[in-house]
């Protein structure tokens, strides 16, 4: 549980691409009675589409390539400390954070993954799910630990797979559910 003490909890969102989850979390943060405020977006990609959204909506953002991961993580940690960030939401962030970084934010980094974890960790989940003729897929919000896609599950949503589904059509329906469960999961861990 992350305590708000009556104030808004400061959140950082890490992205690498499209940024639909960022957008969704931002709108959620703007709702009446919301307990969170998105104070910064960190992207490892200069041209991430999500950054255009951040710009348009006056959300602070920083770009760090993470090519020199140790150096960039230290810089990011400084920013997060300066801004008093209490939760990190990974939203399509394609870098694996170091054990040291995760330790510094223990229990305060969460991620959204497009599968029913512990099944289908890693990349290209929808392709693999279709290839394996699964009946269901879904999405999961979980705590981040140093083991990829393996931390404690906060919330999950099942999505039925139709006979004629492609990876693309499935990802679209899973994404709709991602947008529902990410804010819900945040609510669940904040007091
Ligand atoms: C989502 O499918 C999320 O589950 C995965 O990366 C994708 C990010 O999408 N981790 P977006 O950038 O939030 O649109």
What does this structure look like?
- The protein is of the alpha/beta class and 191 residues long.
- The chain has a domain at 9-106: Rossmann fold (3-Layer(aba) Sandwich), CATH 3.40.50.170.
- Helices cover 36% and strands 23% of the residues.
- α4 links the parallel β4 (87-90) and β5 (109-113).
- The longest helix is centred in the C-terminal third of the chain and has 23 residues, at 167-189.
- The model has no long low-confidence stretch (mean pLDDT 97).
- It binds 5-O-phosphono-beta-D-ribofuranosylamine (GRF).
- Residues 15, 17-21, 50, 91-92, 112-114, 139, 175, 178 line the site of 5-O-phosphono-beta-D-ribofuranosylamine (GRF).
Please write out the topology:
Elements: E1 9-15, H1 20-29, E2 36-43, H2 49-56, E3 61-63, H3 69-82, E4 87-90, H4 99-104, E5 109-113, H5 125-131, E6 136-143, E7 153-160, H6 167-189
Parallel strand pairs: 1-2, 1-4, 2-3, 4-5
Antiparallel strand pairs: 5-6, 6-7
5-O-phosphono-beta-D-ribofuranosylamine (GRF) is lined by residues 15, 17-21, 50, 91-92, 112-114, 139, 175, 178.
């Amino acid at each position: 549980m992350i305590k708000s003490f009556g104030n808004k909890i400061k959140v950082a969102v890490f992205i690498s691409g499209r940024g639909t989850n960022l957008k969704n979390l931002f709108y959620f943060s703007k709702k009446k009675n919301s307990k969170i405020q998105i104070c910064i977006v960190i992207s490892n990609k200069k041209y991430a589409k999500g950054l255009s959204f951040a710009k348009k909506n006056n959300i602070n953002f920083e770009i760090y390539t993470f090519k020199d991961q140790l150096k960039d993580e230290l810089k990011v940690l400084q920013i997060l400390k300066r801004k008093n960030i209490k939760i990190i939401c990974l939203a399509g962030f394609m870098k694996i954070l170091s054990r040291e970084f995760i330790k510094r934010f223990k229990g305060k980094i969460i991620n959204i993954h497009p599968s029913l974890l512990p099944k289908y960790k890693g990349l290209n989940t929808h392709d693999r799910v279709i290839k394996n003729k699964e009946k269901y897929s879904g999405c999961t919000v979980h705590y981040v630990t140093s083991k990829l896609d393996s931390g404690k599950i906060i919330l999950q949503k099942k999505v039925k797979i139709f006979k004629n589904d492609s990876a693309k059509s499935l990802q679209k329906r899973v994404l709709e559910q991602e947008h529902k469960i990410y804010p819900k999961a945040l609510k669940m861990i904040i007091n």
